[in-house]
């Protein structure tokens, strides 16, 4: 989820999540691993736009620098 946004916007997104989360609420994150299938598949398709930052076919991003 967070990998689909610019790393610069991640703090703002987390603040917004905290603001709207109900007391005792849950947030589920989908995470990636360095070298996982998603990263390898994007490397094979030459979708890297900078080091550890890839763009998917739908225009969303995969950032593996935080892994």
UniProtKB/TrEMBL annotation:
It comes from the Eukaryota. InterPro entries: METTL2/6/8-like, SAM-dependent_MTases_sf. The keyword Transferase applies. GO terms for biological process: methylation. Keywords: Methyltransferase, Transferase. The keyword Ubl conjugation does not apply. GO terms for molecular function: RNA methyltransferase activity; S-adenosylmethionine-dependent methyltransferase activity. Belongs to the methyltransferase superfamily. METL family. This is Methyltransferase 2 isoform X1. It comes from Bixa orellana.
């Amino acid at each position: 989820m967070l990998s689909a946004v610019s790393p610069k916007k991640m703090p703002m997104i987390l603040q917004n999540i905290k603001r709207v989360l109900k007391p005792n609420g849950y947030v589920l994150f989908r995470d990636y691993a360095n070298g996982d299938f998603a990263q390898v598949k994007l490397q094979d398709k030459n979708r890297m736009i900078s080091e550890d930052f890839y763009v998917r076919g739908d225009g969303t991003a995969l950032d593996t620098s935080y892994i």
